[in-house]
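User: Fold this; tokens only.

Assistant: Input:
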Amino acid sequence: MIEGYLGQVLSEQVFGWAFDRERPGLHLAVDIYCGERRLGSTTADLYRPDLALGRIGAGDHAFSFRFNEPLGPQELANVLVRVYRQKDPTAFRELPRFVPGLSASVEVAAKAPPDTYRDDTQFPVFVLGAPRSGTSAVAQALMAATPYSGRYEGQILDLLAPLLNEVRRFYESKAEELAHPERGSMIQAIPREYFDKGIKALFAEVLRPLTRSSHWCDKTPSPDMIWGAPHMLRMWPNAKFIFVRRRGLENLRSRLRKFPTLSFEEQCQYWTACMEAWRAVRTELLGRALEVDQYFIARHPARAAQAIGALLSLLPKEAEQLAHVLRRHQPERTGANVLDICDAHTMGWDAAQWATFERLCGPTMEAYGYAREGSYFANNAEIRSCVVI
């Protein structure tokens, strides 16, 4: 099913996105017209963080096209965009038309709530990652050794991103209705921002009485929590993020033991979803995040504590205590020794499982510099196992 949205039409350029949900790796062709006049073509293959956040493939399905000659104001409403698979140009979809100045001309019946969700009095730290990657060890060490308080599990803020995404998709599905102000529909009087702000304000106010101090820690290992990180940074400008990662081999072996009811394919998909979500959002958290590997924490707890301390501006004594706790509270282990690493030859997976692993996890393993056998890291990837983003 082809989806898409014509986000904006300017006198010199057009912007939008197009995505084939049945073929998420395919980049659609885009034809731009003004009435019957064809203005040109492009491809929907540009990356946008908001598309990645909304799970529109890997986020690389946006398009922009600059006109050879600027369009006049009267021509903007006549711009239309058709998207299609290059191998089947006859089966195109015309995106809902953009209506210039629509949002400015609409009288908003209900005022959007103020930005009450933006709270600079709070200093939360969010420990992110896939389950069985060391997130519990880091979060519990923070709560034991530093001023940060919290609960062993959060498991509520990962609802934020799905709700915001559903609002976005709902309004995009109403693009045709929004393009006809003469209908006087109620939705034209209520901007999408009203719900975005309200949802964020709701989460912020619900959490406020549940945190014992302004410095609090949340540990929720899930893809949706990672996708929500940019939103949480806007809600709490002083927020910091620690992404704890682990190689797919060790993570899968641990998850298969911990969650035996899930299929092998589901386990692979979940690890990859967490790791790829982080790759998509981490550039939006520059200066606010630390990426650290579970194996690095196990081997170098003092250095890991030092890096965490620098990120969170901990006192030297607090960083020392954090290192002490990390030595005692070892991350999730796959074998008898937390430093044991898996080797592809000893995993005991059959050919079908290996094929599934390579298909779902292989590209992500390579992107993070993980080896398959002999060592944990490939080449010199170990130097990136504890880095400030």
